[in-house]
Amino acid sequence: MSITILPNHLVNTSQIDALRVAGRGGQEQDIARILLPSAQRVSAPLHDYELRDGTVRYRIEIKKQTNDQWFDIGKYYGLDGSDRDIVVLFVNHTDGRIQTVAAIKLGTLLDTILSDDSFIPYGWARDVLKIASELKKKCPQLQFKAKLKVRDFVASHRHLFQIFYERRAI
């Protein structure tokens, strides 16, 4: 069974081989330009892009990595319903070649991680998020990073994701 997080017609994977995303940070604009051609760049704490499909607005956060992704967890405590609907678009690569493009709602991602004690050593615990959030209110530039092995997470929780692209092994 396939889950729909974003309508398929909003994500363009036809030029995915033109993207080279190796290196630290950045490239989200290049990724968005190719994968989400109708998305608009925004400056928001929890997402970087917005796109519309008729009257529906999608807020999207792009996360590009090989496997290890670091999240500033202070931002994720006490999210309201609309923030829980933010789409996190994971773009996994190997040596700059995109391997998978997978989407999940932020609320689903957080609920899944926070309900699994194996993520606690990385900082994924409700009390840690709460403390980090309280400290961020006092010091907004302060960051609290928790690691998630995204490729592994997608593989073990595939039923929660909408997979837009998966490179076939040759």
Can you put this structure into words, describing what you see?
The protein is α+β, with helices and mostly antiparallel strands and 170 residues long. It is built from five helices and eight strands. The protein has helices spanning 28-35, 81-84, 106-114, 126-138, 150-156; strands at residues 40-41, 49-53, 56-65, 68-72, 87-94, 97-105, 145-149, 162-166. It has a six-stranded mixed sheet, sandwiched between helices. A two-stranded antiparallel ribbon has the order 4-7. The model has no long low-confidence stretch (mean pLDDT 92).
Give a quick summary of the entry.
The chain has helices at residues 28-35, 81-84, 106-114, 126-138, 150-156; strands spanning 40-41, 49-53, 56-65, 68-72, 87-94, 97-105, 145-149, 162-166. The chain is α+β, with helices and mostly antiparallel strands and 170 residues long.
Characterize the main sheet: 6 strands, mixed
Number of helices: 5
Number of strands: 8
Rg from Cα: 16 Å
The share of residues in extended strands comes to: 25-35%
First-residue to last-residue Cα separation: 26 Å
Order of helices and strands: HEEEEHEEHHEHE
Structural class: alpha+beta
Order of neighbouring strands in the sheet with most strands: 1-2-3-5-6-8
Mean pLDDT across all residues, rounded? 92
Question: Are there runs of 5+ residues with pLDDT below 50, and where?
Answer: none
Helical residues, percent: 10-25%
Q: Overall 3D geometry?
A: globular
Write the layout of secondary structure elements.
Elements: H1 28-35, E1 40-41, E2 49-53, E3 56-65, E4 68-72, H2 81-84, E5 87-94, E6 97-105, H3 106-114, H4 126-138, E7 145-149, H5 150-156, E8 162-166
Parallel strand pairs: 3-5
Antiparallel strand pairs: 1-2, 2-3, 4-7, 5-6, 6-8
